[in-house]
Amino acid sequence: MTSIDNLAEEIMQGLQEYADLADTAMKKAVRKTATQVKNEISANAPKDTGKYAKSWATKKTGENSHSLEMAVHSKNRYQLAHLIEKGHAKRGGGRVSGKPHIAPAEENGVQVRIIQKICHGGREISSTFVREALTEGDMELVNALLSEPYFICGRVAHGNRIGRTLGMPTVNLHPQEGKLLPPNGVYFSTVTYGQQTFYGVTNIGYKPTVEDTHRMGVETYIYDFDEDIYEKDITVHLFHFERPEQKFAGLAELKDAIAKNVADGKRYFNI
Fold first, then answer.
1. Which residues make Cβ contacts (< 8 Å) with residue 245, sequence separation at least 6?
2. CB 240 within 8 Å of CB 201
3. How far apart are CA 100 and CA 50, in angstroms?
4. Cys-Cys with 208: which of 82, 164, 199, 247 at CB 3.0–4.6 Å?
5. Confidence band of 236 (pLDDT split at 50, 70, 90)
6. Burial 3-37 (b: 16+ CB within 10 A, else e)
7. Cα dihedral sign, 208-234-266-165
8. Using CA of residue 227, residue 230, residue 232, residue 233, what is the dihedral sign?
9. Whether the predicted model's global pTM rises above the 0.70 cut
């Protein structure tokens, strides 16, 4: 039976996950709207040489975990924008009429639109749906619901070097506290380090064959990689649950299992 304290904790965690999903969706919508406004201004702008229309761009002016501010601006023709939009007086008298192309785009950009809730397989996408799929280890479904691969990020920590002893060096990181994780086991993954992304095989769990610990770890063998990245930040994306974590009789049996996972991962990624 779930205690009141545990129930409250689960509710708060669910709300936080929902908020994270909502923040991600909101930021995508802001970026999309900014791009649409920029494109509409460019399309409706007066075109003499075309330089003015092409000068419009978007830029991020502020962001935190719960908000994103984008600006639409003319990069190098900003002096003309007001004159063209509102019109201006002629030197010898009279006035040049304005050609509104900014205001209509702004109005369209802030229109309130009521849209249908997004569904997958006939079910509304929600934090509960994502949590259920993640708990079952269905990474293909999780990634479809999130519209991007599920990831775990952290700083590479020193391990026990068993992987190197077995001829399969790995990188280790400890997931942040409170991170909702899939079932312990082996996953086909990618690892992003700096500007590069590599294929890998990841084990999530406690490594029962070689350690007697209760600390959760994320250990990844990276294909064709032999750099020292201790204390560097990496991001591990999970794509497919291969098998549950298990305790083997010894290192030889563990090595055979890892070798099979590595071979299967190559076939999965077609590398």
1. 184, 185, 186, 203, 204, 205, 206, 207, 208
2. no
3. 17
4. 247
5. very high
6. eeeeeeeeeeeeeebeeebeeeeebeebeebbeeb
7. negative
8. positive
9. no
**For the chain, what is the HEC assignment?**
CCCHHHHHHHHHHHHHHHHHHHHHHHHHHHHHHHHHHHHHHHHHCCCCCCHHHHCEEEEEEEEECCEEEEEEEECCCHHHHHHHHHEEECCCCCEEECCCCCHHHHHHHCCCCCCCCCEECCEECCHHHHHHHHHCCCHHHHHHHHCCCEEEEEECECCCCHHHHCCCCEEEECCCCCCCCCCCEEEEEEEEECCEEEEEEEEEECCCCCCCCCCCEEEEEECCCCCCCCCCEEEEEEEEEEEECCCCCCHHHHHHHHHHHHHHHHHHHCC
**Which pair of structure tokens corresponds to residue 126?**
């929600």
* pLDDT for 145: 92
Question: Domain 149-269 adopts which CATH fold?
Answer: Elongation Factor Tu (Ef-tu); domain 3 (2.40.30)
pLDDT tens-place string over residues 81-136: 777 777 767 777 777 787 787 777 667 665 444 455 688 998 888 888 999 999 99
Structure tokens at 48: 């003499």
Q: What is the rounded distance in angstroms from the CA atom of residue 246 to the CA atom of residue 195? A: 34
pLDDT of residue 218: 93
Q: Which residues neighbour 40 within 8 Å (Cβ) at sequence distance 6 or greater?
A: 104, 105, 108, 109
Which residues make beta-bridge pairs with 96? Answer: 88
